[in-house]
């Protein structure tokens, strides 16, 4: 069945990339979580989309310049709603505990395009192995050098090529990088391409898909995963209630 990846958790209903968003996604039927990983000044892997803390915590500093202790003192929920006041920026460890307990999939998007975090690839790969989550995790990244780096560290760790548009025969490119998946924007996929990729052993996980009619078309096309802010909508379709 199509994997139902909650984009930054159930970000249609909760502040993105918080434990509240991840827990609620599971309640709504998500069978996977997509999250964004950055690194603190003291080398901790933390879950936040932006390099700068301003949008989701109000503090105008870069993640790379604060320690985990400083980050943990910030409120990552109030920007969204006072109902979520006190939500913290989670660590990758916290999410991995949840993923392990619920036997769901985890798409770890490493953010290393704007800030180049030292050895973030090895830190993430080591963390996946420490939790024994090799079969449940896939690393994605818009920075394909970083993806190739993950593959070089351990070819057993699965990687997905993030892109928006215009990659020619992306399944061939995936094979060049040793990647198992194409993480394509929803407008960069056709049913024919899904089939051609499949014949080469390469799967599609498509983002960010929030409309039911788009979800239906992608399920029909045979994509492996859909990344959505509304995992409840996809759950309803996949369980025949949509
Ligand atoms: O991984 C899919 C999607 O999350 C990529 O874009 O900006 O939401 O991280 P962004
Ligand atoms: Mg992302």
Helix fraction, binned, reads 25-40%
- Tell me the series of helices and strands, N- to C-terminal: EHEEHHHEHEHEHEHEHEH
Instruction: Average the pLDDT over all residues and give the rounded result.
Output: 97
CATH hierarchy, class = Alpha Beta
Number of extended strands? 9
Number of domains: 1
Spatial strand arrangement across the major sheet:
1-2-4-5-6-7-8-9
Low-confidence stretches: none
Oligomer: single chain
User: First CA to last CA: what distance?
Assistant: 15 Å
Estimated share of beta-strand residues: 15-25%
What is the CATH T-level topology? TIM Barrel
Major sheet characteristics: 8 strands, parallel, barrel
SS-based class: alpha/beta
The second-level CATH architecture is: Alpha-Beta Barrel
Silhouette: globular
Structure write-up:
- This protein is α/β, with parallel strands linked by helices and 242 residues long.
- The chain has a single domain, classed as TIM Barrel (Alpha-Beta Barrel).
- Helix content is 35%, strand content 19%.
- It has helices spanning 19-27, 54-57, 68-72, 92-102, 120-130, 144-153, 170-177, 191-199, 212-221, 231-238; strands at residues 3-7, 32-39, 45-47, 105-110, 137-141, 158-163, 181-185, 203-207, 225-228.
- The protein has an eight-stranded parallel beta barrel, surrounded by eight helices.
- The longest helix has 11 residues, at 92-102.
- The two termini are 15 Å apart.
- Bound molecules: SN-glycerol-3-phosphate and magnesium ion (MG).
- Magnesium ion (MG) binds next to strand 2.
- InterPro entries: GP_PDE_dom (IPR030395), PLC-like_Pdiesterase_TIM-brl (IPR017946).
- Residues 2-238 form the GP-PDE domain.
């Amino acid at each position: 069945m199509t994997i139902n990846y909650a984009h930054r958790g159930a970000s249609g209903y909760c502040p993105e990339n918080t434990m509240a968003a991840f827990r609620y996604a599971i309640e709504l039927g998500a069978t996977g979580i997509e999250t964004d990983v950055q690194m603190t000044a003291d080398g901790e892997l933390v879950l936040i989309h932006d390099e700068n803390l301003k949008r989701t915590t109000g503090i105008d500093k870069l993640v790379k310049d604060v320690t985990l202790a400083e980050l943990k003192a910030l409120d990552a929920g109030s920007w969204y709603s006072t109902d979520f006041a006190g939500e913290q920026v989670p660590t990758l460890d916290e999410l991995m505990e949840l993923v392990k307990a619920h036997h769901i999939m985890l798409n770890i998007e490493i953010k290393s395009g704007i800030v180049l975090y030292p050895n973030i690839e090895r830190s993430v790969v080591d963390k996946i192995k420490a939790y024994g989550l090799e079969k449940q995790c896939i690393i994605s990244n818009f920075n394909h050098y970083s993806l190739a780096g993950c593959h070089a560290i351990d070819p057993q760790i699965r990687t997905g090529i993030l892109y928006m548009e215009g990659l020619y025969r992306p399944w061939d490119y995936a094979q060049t990088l040793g990647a198992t998946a194409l993480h394509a924007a929803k407008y960069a996929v056709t049913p024919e391409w899904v089939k051609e990729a499949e014949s080469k052993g390469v799967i599609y996980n498509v983002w960010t898909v929030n409309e039911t009619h788009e979800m239906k078309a992608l399920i029909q096309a045979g994509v492996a995963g859909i990344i959505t802010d509304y995992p409840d909508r996809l759950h309803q379709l996949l369980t025949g209630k949509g």
